[in-house]
């Protein structure tokens, strides 16, 4: 949570910033995203694909 709070603080101070999101279930893509976030000390947002989300609520796996 401190990463997001810091991003808001920087944004209010006029600094351009953001967070990237990965929307994949492929193990190599997820591994690359985790490695990148770890190496660059950045937060990682992994989104579910539309096929993984039940439109009536819940996660289909």
UniProtKB/TrEMBL annotation:
Gene3D superfamilies referenced in this protein's UniProt entry, alphabetically: Aldolase class I
An annotated GO BP: D-tagatose 6-phosphate catabolic process
InterPro entries: Aldolase_TIM (IPR013785), GatZ/KbaZ-like (IPR012062)
SUPFAM superfamilies: Aldolase
Pfam families: GatZ_KbaZ-like
Name of the protein described by the UniProt record: Tagatose-bisphosphate aldolase
Species this chain originates from: Escherichia coli
Lineage: Bacteria, Pseudomonadati, Pseudomonadota, Gammaproteobacteria, Enterobacterales
